Amino acid sequence: MKNILILGAVVVAAIVGGFALYSFISNDKSVVTFDTSAVQTSDSQTTTSAEPESGTGDTVEQSPQTSSDGTAYRIGTSAGGKDIMAHTFGTGEKEVILIGGIHAGFAPSTESLLRMFITTARDASGFIPASVRVTVIPLLNPDSATGAAGALSGRLNANGVDLNRNFACSWQKDAVWQTQPVSGGSAAFSEPEAQALRDYIAKAKPVAVVAYYAKAGGVYASACGDKTVAQSSTLTNLYAGATGYSAHKAFDSYATSGDLTNWLAGQGVPAISVLLTSYTEAEFAKNALGISAVLQEIVK
């Protein structure tokens, strides 16, 4: 118990202080929770979106460069007409994008994790290096069924499409999730959520992308056919080493088509997939270490 309390104190102090977080954590990779007045970090709870939905008049459209304080702005709308929101922190030239909620109902932990990161980035000065800006898209799929953790219905948008089968890398209309058939959409990028992300990435030209899923407790490099980006493997190993997740050259548990990070590899963007170990627990403390490791690599 004493060691856990000490480790928790180190994590809090390091996050508030910035990137000392990655350097000072011990080899004990156990998940810890910590409490501050600003950050909801109980990994056993999922947060709910406080962002307005479409039609409230409280959101604005902005370019990737115009928001640097975490103010929410719209990058598109879902098939069901809900806003897809982003938050950008920092003013550096190098942009890193963090994406959660691709299968929001299936893995609500991914949205919770990034909402915790948003709160931390707002309240902890120095967390984002001067040469970097970080854009967080916590909920790419606001239409997915709630209360469907681990269930197929939680993976789909309002059109019944699995968004992680809708990107233009080995795209197939009739796709699969494990052994279950799923829709990849009528064409690559047929879904407004995938279109919104594609268009944002074209504007932002990120130097790295981290996409969150569940559940395997692993980090996976990306490739589209024979197109790979060397830094993807580097980021995979760094993130895995910082968090204690396993590192993998590719996701090969079953065949996939239309995958987001593989499409990014085809575009020359270093991208990794992080699969949390739980559908519902955000594992914020260890993933803060992983994000810090990625950002340290980017500023080299």
From TrEMBL:
UniProt-listed InterPro entries: Peptidase_M14
Membrane-spanning residues: none
SMART domains hit by this protein: Zn_pept
One Pfam family per UniProt: Peptidase_M14
Names of the cofactor(s): Zn(2+)
Biased composition (Polar residues): 38-70
Statement: the UniProt record of this protein carries the keyword Protease: yes
GO cellular component: extracellular space
Protein name per its UniProtKB record: Peptidase M14 domain-containing protein
UniProt lineage: Bacteria, Candidatus Kaiseribacteriota
